[in-house]
What we know:
Structural class: alpha/beta
Distance between the termini: 62 Å
Radius of gyration: 24 Å
Largest sheet: 11 strands, mixed
Shape: globular
Amino acid sequence: MKLSQILKGIEVKNDFEDREVLDVTQDSRLVKEGSLFVCVKGAAFDGHDVAEEMMKNGAVGVIVERDLGIDGQIIVENSRETYSPICANFFGNPAQKLKLIGLTGTNGKTTTTFLIKQILENSGKKVGLIGTVQNMICDEIYPAKYTTPDPYELQKLFAMMVDAGCEYCVMEVSSQALAQGRVSGLRFTLGAFTNLTQDHLDYHKTWENYFNAKRRLFENCDIAVTNADDEYGLKIVEGLDFDKLVTYAVNTNDADLIAKNVKFKSNGVEYELVGDTIGRCTCPIPGRFSVYNSLCACTCALALGIDFYTVLEAISKSQGVKGRIEVVPTGKDFTIIIDYAHSPDGLENIITSLKEIAKGRVVTLFGCGGDRDRTKRPKMGKIAAELSDFCIVTSDNPRSENPSAIIDDILEGMKGINTPYVVVEQRKDAIEYAIKNAKKDDIILLAGKGHETYQILPTGTIHFDEREVVAEVLSALD
């Protein structure tokens, strides 16, 4: 593909030779003969520093933000923002052939995207999915490294979806992806907002930055769906123009779609879905947050024109998502649940939901990630202690930090609360402790890891699948 084709629609500040391009990348390690290298400045590395070296390594050009005085430079205003449309052009702009549905918010994105995919497929559509747990093209599953992939991988997935005949792509859109321009140039048929609570402030630094990153999705969508119960639900769409704005709620009647007469059961939730039409919505995923997740999914589908009763039927047949209130088979008289809850709000939601269905104790096993927002740690400790019947404080992904120092931060929030707890630093040992000390009708919540099958330690990343750990411990007890 010619360089001029790859740069179509992009403002370039200098003349350049129209060479043949074989690949594009922002990773200096992947540059080969015929590559176009995009110089992006990150927190630890600036691609501009190796631009000349990349030309010597065979690059046909380097995208830069300033004049470096080297042959092959192509100067643009913002190379990070330019990378996404460059990748789109390289793959033939596949997203223009798809109806993109983007979900953003702190919690609920993963489950809600799966529910939307299932509703659309139930109505006869071919659908792709991009998210935290996995990427999917119809029924084919592809591994996911990030919630929202980098622009090259993202556009490659879009192209594969188009080749497979997909009409829709449902995707989680993270605040980091929005801030880093990974979805720049994309137009979403529908953007949806779940909620906004404390998370990722280690990256965004301020609440305002976090909020504004999320808002960028709604600056680039035709239909907006938002949670009217959330403090930021209406603020995030304020002052923006849409073809259609649809709100959903549980606690207020001032919304387009409302969940009324909610009933919580051990095998799911039920409520009256009230809008222009009224119908009984049954979602076979337990937990209070399942009301919001299913309600958001229903609202999105209805906003896209899917038949009301087709939506209700699809929700009634929906399945859970790995690592989201996932019940692990034990064959014992207690229950083990794995959930990805790793923020104060997420932990509060899952424990509260389990308390509503528990016959015995709710035992919460949790830790906090290292090299991340430290202010979350005492807050999560306080929430776990206040809501649980027993707590086991352990490690999550300590990364480069000392695990015991992270635990000390958590314990600060548990001071003055009478809930009994133990500290078991090694997560595998903590799970073993929880199982060996389980009582009849206990619900043991393994919080924080969810779908992850690894643990990031100061010494490196190791394989760690909590399902396997549980099976191993149970096998040793038999």
